[in-house]
Task: structure prediction
Amino acid sequence: MKATEVPQIAGAYLFEPTPYADERGFFCRTFDADVVRSVGLDPCAFVQDSVSRSVRGVLRGLHLRSGAGEAKLVRCSYGRIFDVVVDLRPHSPTYLGRAFFELSGETQATVYVPTGCAHGFQALTDTADTSYRIDRPHDPAEDVTIAFDDPELAIPWPLPVTSMSRRDREAPSLAEVLKHTEG
Result:
């Protein structure tokens, strides 16, 4: 497994494993504590694993956590997704930077999303399972959502949106969120 820094987002990493495929299918190590530790992250910091299943065109995000924030490892374990990370840390050298990835069950690549960054994705296949490894237990009172179609972010979502949660559909603009978190 190799770890690569994501230049658009300070402190973000892409972890790319090596799936071993044969006539039976494939085997792949999707988490390696030594590799995570090698880039300065604490592998023991992750306390919760979650999974979502989405159908083609579903959009989830853009999400982040208030309070102490939340770091996470995100991987598409089945299907394909268009994955987005936005740096919302005011003192970061990559503040308002955006990074886009195509994650898939074939590659099993994982993106590390640092605390203070928003995250979202869109399912590109009929079924897409997305796995999350999170460094804090979820507290719905700390959920923050930003409009997926905010013109300031200009995210090039690849498909028309077929479905999204009410919370995501009614999310405020980036400017509104920043006004409430910075002021």
